[in-house]
Design brief:
It is a single chain. This protein is α+β, with helices and mostly antiparallel strands. It contains eight helices and eight strands, in the order E-H-H-E-E-H-H-E-E-H-H-E-E-H-H-E. Strands 1-3-2-8-5-7-6-4 form an eight-stranded antiparallel beta barrel.
Length: about 210
Amino acid sequence: MEGPIYKLSMVRPKEAWYRMSQDQRNAYLAKIEDVRREARSKSLLICQSLWSNERWALFGVEEFPDLNSLIKQTELLFDMGHYHLINGFTILGTKWPEDDPTQTLRPTMENSVFKIWMMRPTDAWYEMTEEERNAFAARSGKILSDVGGKTVVRCACGWSNEQWVLFGVEEFPSVEAAQRHADLLVADDHFRYSEGVSMLGTLWRLE
């Protein structure tokens, strides 16, 4: 498959991670960067998220030039014992639509709050006309813009799993802006036409 391919990951550490010293952790994270260079992948975003959910400690998005690059990175991580240290959940996607100008792919604000989401359309969506769907998408985009939010990336992922059709990351200037966004979506009956899961996080810093 031609790229770029995007990988949305949610992870939590295993006991083996907690038993490592800080120096060992730092050395291990440096090895992961070496693996990324060898596989030609890029980390677009890593966020800490335990404050917004009970299951996942971190979430992130990586970009790969093609599927072979992703497979190579997975094999390299397996060989270095990566999956002995973390549990996780991942979904692969392709950028949707490819020429969407609203997708920034990089954080733009130092103290942003990020929201990852995975969704699928409801029966009500399939009953809408094409014109109604376009109007719905336009309203959704305006609501995001009105609260100061931006789309980092939006991907089609139905080809890589059976549960979700799209995944994405949105960037907000504050938690309050993210909450306001959710309130406006509810007022617009957004969740009549789509269902999914989401999680908030802030940029992960090693120091």
